[in-house]
Amino acid sequence: MRGLETVEFACGLPVHLAGLNTPNVATKVDAFTLRGPLGVTAAITPFNFPVMVPMWIYPIAMACGNTMVWKPSSHTPGASQLQAELWKEAGLPDGVFNVVYGGREAVTAIVEHPDIKAIQFVGSTPVGRYVYEGGIKAGKRVGAYTAAKNAMIVLPDADMELTADAAVAAGFGSAGERCMAQSLVIAVGDTAERLRPLMEERIAKLKVGPGTEPGMDMGPIYSAEHRESVISWIDKGVAEGAELVVDGRSFHHADNPDGFFLGVTLFDHVTPEMETYQEEIFGPVLGIVRAKTFDEALGLINAHKYANGTAIFTTDGGAARRFKLEVDVPMVGVNVPIPVPAGYLSFGGARDSSFGDLAMRGEDGIRFFTQQKMVTERWPEPGRRGALSLVFPGNS
Predict the structure, then answer these.
(1) Of the listed 179, 203, 218, 264, which one is catalytic?
(2) Which single residue of 2, 58, 263, 394 could bond 248 by disulfide (Cβ 3.0 to 4.6 Å)?
């Protein structure tokens, strides 16, 4: 649905591509702007949303008049190929939409190729930094949207039942393999003592199994290697001294013993000094952080190196208003745990969650995939050219 929203937005781009016209900026001189395509553009996208994320990029790029070279994740070739086939079936001319499979060598080729004018990347921070720095050095326009460690603040006056639902859904949905997961719950005051039992109740009822079976809440981790990585992060959290409330490491699916299944994990008393607080785990691991005051909780979010999405749960409108104004994170939810904006609005990050000047989608997406020209023109009347002047045109 979020991808289709962006397609619908792209279908209305002609009105957004219209320029500005200002007649008579000087005597018989008019000024106006034109928006034109860049040429060949590229997208490098991750495995976890193999339809939605690329659909946030290529509809806008192509509607702005560019061609697209798309390098999807090698873990999800079926979804990528189907989109290409559907564009072909829809009548898109050959060469406008191009899919390039591969790993590091394909990314490097996109970064270095002189004909590619702009790149949008979604993925890890190290690779995103490489794409951004290499692309900028090569004179390209680059937007890299990278890792996250999102935190939701819970104030003592919040609706605890609503908040418990939101925390479990935001922490464990998509097996935690999404950049907008709320992987930290910052509980203010005595909130943790009331919220944690409600979260444990909900966790106990979660059903983990094949996503194709009805009634499942969470499917497997996407690969054996990543499953082992998440387990190692749980081990690290225990070693760092966080309280292991729910341990997902021992989960096994009886009917699929070789599947990459992992249960959900809940830590309490996570502190900013721990690596499990600082780094993105990208799995079903949720941590509770305890803060004494609203100011302390807000300071933790603003001091974190990642800044993608955040949320506050409260019934206090004044506290929510202050949070919206003072939090240094671009996507904010108020009693909404996953604040992904609608498809016609921008999506982005700050600090180590994003490299580049413009967000993806929406008006920023149009600016990213177009080149604006400022035209100043004069049509002198025959026989009235005027005298030579060495100054800027003015009114006379």
Answers:
(1) 179
(2) 263
Question: 112: Cβ–Cβ under 8 A, 6 or more apart, which residues?
Answer: 134, 138
Q: Which domain holds residue 196?
A: 150-334
| Same domain flag for 103 and 60 | yes
State how many domains the chain has. 2
Is 207's pLDDT higher than 70? yes
Q: Looking up tokens 């190196």, which residue turns up?
A: 305
Q: If you write DSSP's letter for every residue of 312-372 in order, what string do you get?
A: EE-S-HHHHHHHHHH---SEEEES-SS-PPPTTS-B--EETTEESSS-BSHHHHHHHTEEE
For residue 340, being part of any structural domain is answered with no
Sole residue written with tokens 């951004």:
132
Burial category of 394 from C-beta neighbours within 10 Å (exposed 0-12, middle 13-18, buried 19 and up): exposed
Residues with Cβ within 8 Å of 285's Cβ and at least 6 positions away in sequence, in order, are: 171, 176, 183, 230, 233, 234, 237, 248, 264, 265, 267, 276
**Same-domain check for residues 139 and 190:** no
**Residue 386 falls inside a structural domain:** no
> Could you confirm whether 179 is annotated as catalytic?
yes
- The answer, yes or no, to whether residue 82 has pLDDT greater than 90, is yes
The overall average pLDDT reported for the chain is 95
Q: Is the pTM of this model over 0.90?
A: yes
